[in-house]
Every structure is written in C-alpha cells, then in structure tokens.
From TrEMBL:
Domain of life: Bacteria
Record protein name field: Dehydratase
Pfam families: CoA_transf_3
Organism phylogeny: Bacteria, Bacillati, Actinomycetota, Actinomycetes, Mycobacteriales
Gene3D superfamilies in UniProt: Crotonobetainyl-coa:carnitine coa-transferase, domain 1, formyl-coa transferase, domain 3
GO molecular function: catalytic activity
Length: 398
C-alpha cells in the first residue's frame, strides 16, 4: 500500500513531545523525516522512562521511523548544513527551538521563497510554556479529581502536547497542498497555550462562565458532567467505569442491576424523568447508591458477562502493565513487533488511522546521529573527505 506522503521530506529540529510527535506522524504517513539534533543529543535524549540499558524509552517512542543527524548548530558551518538540508530538500521544517535567527522563516525564505516553516511555541507571544504550566492556566486542574479535594490536580497525560503535535502535522499537510496548487510557501506558528484554550473553548468550558453569569464548573470525581457516568467496585475489588449516554443505555443498566422498582419509585418521589440525561446527571449520587449494591454483590467476571449482553458502555480499569498484555494490544493490528537497539523486541504502535483497511506500521527509532554521513553525502553531495573534515572539527558527529 502506497503511503500518502511517500514523496515528502521534512526536517525536524525539536525536543520533548509536540514537535517530535508531529514529525513521527508525518513519518508514519510515509514522509522521510530527518531529525537534526545537537551533538550528544537534545535535552530529551535521556528522558525517562529508561530501559535497563539506559536507553530512553520515551525518545525511541516519539522518534520511530525517522532518520537522525547530529550537527553542531552553534557553529556557522553547522547552521549552514541544516539550512541546506531544508532548502535543498523539500523546503519543509518543523521546530520548537526558539530564538534561532538562522532557522527563522525569513532567513530560509530568502534562500527558498516557497519554504514551509512550522514553529511551535509555548504561548502566542513566543514566550515559553510547557504542557503542565499551560494546563494550570486553563482551569482543568481545578475541576480534576475528587469532589471534596481543595487544591489543583494535574493529569498525567500531556494532552496539549499531543494535540499540538497533531495540529502541526495537519498544518504541514495543508501547507504542502496549498504550495502544490499555488507555489506559495507558508509561515505557520502554533502555540501550545492556544491549542489548550481553543479546546477548552470548543468544549464549552470557557463559554459557560461567559454566558451563564460567571458559573464555574465543579469537581465531579469520576462522574461525567451532564451525563450519567460513575465508577463502581466489584465484590472481588475490581474497579469499573460505567457510562449511559442514551435512554437505552440507562434502561439496560437499570434492568441488569435489578433496580427497576427502586428507580421508578425514586423518579416518582423526586418528580424526575430519568429518560432525560440532565435529570440522570442531577440525581447521579442517589442513582449510584442504588446501582452500587449490585456491583458490590458480583465479581468482576460476572459484571463483565452481564454488562456485555447489554448496550451499557463500560470498561474495567487497568494498569499500563495489564493493558500491555491485553488482547487490545497483543491482538491489535495497530501494533507490530519491533526490534529497537537498547530496548530489544516489543510491540510498538503504528499510525492509529486506518488507510484502505490497514495501519501503516511503526519502524524503529534511529541511532542518534546514525544517518549523519549518509544524509550529508546523499542529500548535499558532500564527499568522504568533506565529511571527515567536518567530523574532525566536531561540526558533525557520525
């Protein structure tokens, strides 16, 4: 199956999550992505978690399928090499490195007017921020966690990094399409904070206080705002998340739990109509008290079997280790077995998107700097003597 970006080359100068994820996404779509690092690696080369060999599981995870060049980007000659890789290639670069005039859109566009330059930043004014500080400013940590908790709770998922990386990949594809049609390059900037604010706005979290007289969203624990959803614990201690988005979902949960008479009596006493999702949400605590008895009287296997025969949305809480051994990983065509130097063999995901019935498989991450000599030779026409001289001068590391 032909990958849709198979004829595209992208240069990536980056570290951490968002920009590397952008590059890896493009790589999984078929693009040749050249990650350029300083000699010795960028600040994420040894980021945890680490394998017993000391290899960064994090770094290899976000750089699958790329090629790697290590160049001294503080030296004029090193900067020239990176510029040439960009302008003599397909003229596309993605970076989250700030304050580098030699890597700016203006500098590159002077050499290649149709350059596509994607700059990721922390905030729209160009100042620095990371996922966890951006998240603190958006309001999410103050509605995350138990209802009776007083302070902020951060989530462990770097959601804005992930969203920003995917937005950046989308921006490159859109810019390439426009360039193919009109010959015009693009100067694209994406701020991590703007991605977070846009998401909070699109989901109504910023709109709500503006139009409802300053109303603030409250902490709900594991409940779901505006719907009925709650966590429950089985007789043998397993935790489940249960969600009812529709009348049928709720009706099936009532039936399987044997709470029909009690739920009807509750509705009558409250004057509530539980066919309405807002009513189910409003009286979630008392409804959960009725359902919780059934869950506490049945084992995890019994609950799984009973709910599987209904329309109710549910899942058992699992650890990462449990998930890694589960069929949703071991039997999922998204994953294929890779051999990664420093890690050994493991199941690694490819592109989550399915094209024509298939996933594009993941490929091992490169050895840091392992492609430097080949790229400079094949892409820029440097001779073996040129490469030896640059290596001796510590301008590159092969």
């Amino acid at each position: 199956m032909s990958a849709p970006l198979a004829d595209l080359t992208v240069v990536e100068v980056s570290s951490f999550v968002a920009a590397p994820l952008c590059g890896m996404t493009l790589s999984q779509l078929g693009a040749e992505v050249i990650r350029v690092d300083p000699i010795g690696g960028a600040s994420d080369i040894n980021r945890w978690p680490l394998a017993s060999s000391g290899t960064s599981i994090y770094w290899t995870g976000l750089n699958k399928g790329k090629r790697s060049a290590t160049i001294d980007m503080r030296s004029p000659e090193g900067q020239d090499l990176v510029q040439r890789l960009i302008v003599e290639g397909d003229g596309i670069v993605v970076t989250n490195a700030a304050g580098l005039p030699w890597l700016s859109f203006d500098k590159l566009a002077a050499q290649r007017p149709d350059v596509i330059h994607v700059q990721l930043s922390g905030r729209h004014d160009g100042s620095t921020a990371v996922d966890y500080t951006v998240n603190a400013a958006t309001g999410y940590p103050l509605v995350t966690g138990p209802a009776d908790h007083a302070g902020p709770i951060n989530h462990v998922l770097p959601a804005w990094d992930v969203c920003c990386g995917v937005y950046a990949a989308l921006a490159i594809v859109a810019a390439v399409r426009r360039r193919d049609q009109s010959g015009v390059g693009a100067q694209v900037s994406i701020a991590l904070e703007d991605v977070a604010l846009a998401t909070a706005g699109n989901l109504g979290l910023l709109t709500e206080p503006q139009v409802n007289g300053g109303a603030e969203r409250q902490r709900l624990g594991n409940a779901i705002y505006g719907q009925y959803g709650q966590d429950f614990t089985s007789l043998d201690g397993a935790a489940f998340m249960v969600v009812t988005l529709t009348k049928r979902h709720f009706r099936d949960l009532v039936e399987v739990s044997g709470t029909g008479a009690a739920v009807s009596a509750l509705a009558e006493s409250l004057g509530a109509d539980f066919a309405d999702e807002g009513q189910r949400y409003r009286y979630r605590d008392v409804l959960s008290g009725l359902f919780r008895i059934w869950f506490a009287e049945h084992t995890a296997d019994e609950i799984t079997a009973a709910l599987s025969a209904t329309s109710v949305l549910f899942e058992r809480y699992r650890t990462f280790a449990e998930t890694a051994k589960d069929e949703r990983v071991t039997g999922n065509p998204l994953f294929c077995r890779l051999h990664q130097d420093g890690l050994g063999d493991y199941l690694a995901p490819g592109l989550p998107t399915v094209f024509d019935g298939k996933h594009f498989a993941g490929e091992p991450a490169p050895t840091l700097g392992g492609d430097t000599a080949d790229l400079l030779s094949a892409r820029l026409g440097l001779s073996a003597a040129d490469i030896a001289r640059l290596s001796d001068a510590n301008t590159i590391a092969c």
